[in-house]
Amino acid sequence: MKYIERFYQQLHSFLIEEDGVTAIEYGLIASLIGLAIIAGTTLLGSNLNAKFTTIATTIAAAV
To answer: How far, in whole angstroms, is CA 6 from its chain's centroid?
Structure first.
């Protein structure tokens, strides 16, 4: 009978513990931030490249 009680106590403490859940949440948040940075950099890089191409064309036409 002691083994069953001990098993239930360990099972209960395992289900109550939230350290693993917190680590998973932080991992998900970090991955979402990473995706946002990649998307923003890609979008900004394309716009910046177009802007520099326009400036280079304007300067080349002026010279």
So the answer is: 40
